[in-house]
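Exercise: predict the fold of this chain.
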Amino acid sequence: MKREEFKQFKLVNESEYPLIDHYIIDKDNDFYIEPIFYSQLDGFKERHKESYQLIIDSIIKRVKQNHKVIFVGDFEDNTFEIPGYIILEIQDITNPLKIFVEDKSRGSDYGD
């Protein structure tokens, strides 16, 4: 599904990776986005509306710097790799921008 944020780029449907979106910026720069990355991105859109475009701009900038990027939800639990592509998580984009989401999830207090 083509996202509004990336509408200026060509979306390629690939039978080999049907759940992962592949966007082409130009002949030298392209990127893939996993669905979980979209979910994380939506969380930032909801919580940091004022900075959201900065995040999108940074994603595009990182692709143009690295040329071949896969945006994943979790680097350690990633099953999607393509030779020649680097893997980035949402924190790789947002942390340098000093945009953070506090993780308030924690284990149960029952039994303490």
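Check your answer against the key: The chain has three helices and five strands.
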